[in-house]
Amino acid sequence: SGTENILGILAFASAVKAHNKEKGGMVAELYAYLKTQLEKIDGIKLNLPEVASPYILNVSLCGVRSEVALNYLSSMGIYLSAGSACSAKHRDNRVLSAFGVDKSNVESSVRISLDADNTKEEIDVLIAQLRIIKEKYGKMIKRK
Question: pTM for this one?
Fold first, then answer.
């Protein structure tokens, strides 16, 4: 019960390295494409540290609360998150606050996760839906 499976650990490490070598470049391309498309939408702010993982991108949909965006997107079959699993019990987002993101942008932030199985076409669908959200719900908030 106390003996570690060294062979199994080494085999797993080797498999992870091979997977990352094969799929990591694909994810980096998708990440760059997603970033470029998001930057074209007025009222979307990228919340990124200087060095970021290509698997996760956080954005603020300025003027639209996260819950509204997530509910709309889930009705379209697109599933994002308002935060990470490790901060699910906290009302505030300490990571975004540490990046210097102000409270209103934290409240309108969504986290997009990417994988090598995602496609540019899926990103295009997401971008189109984010434009609709900004158009439809951003104006409602501004009227108040």
Answer: 0.77
Residue pLDDT, tens place only, 25-84: 899 999 999 999 999 999 999 998 888 889 999 999 999 999 999 999 999 999 999 876
52: tokens are 């970021």
Burial class (CB in 10 A: 0-12, 13-18, 19+), 114: buried
Residue-wise over 70-104: b if at least 16 C-beta within 10 A, else e? bebbeeeebebbbbeeeeeeeeebebbeeeebeee
Quick check: 43 and 63 in contact, CB under 8 A? yes
Under a CB-based contact definition with an 8 Å cutoff, are residues 49 and 100 in contact?
no
Contact present, 60 and 109 (Cβ < 8 Å)? yes
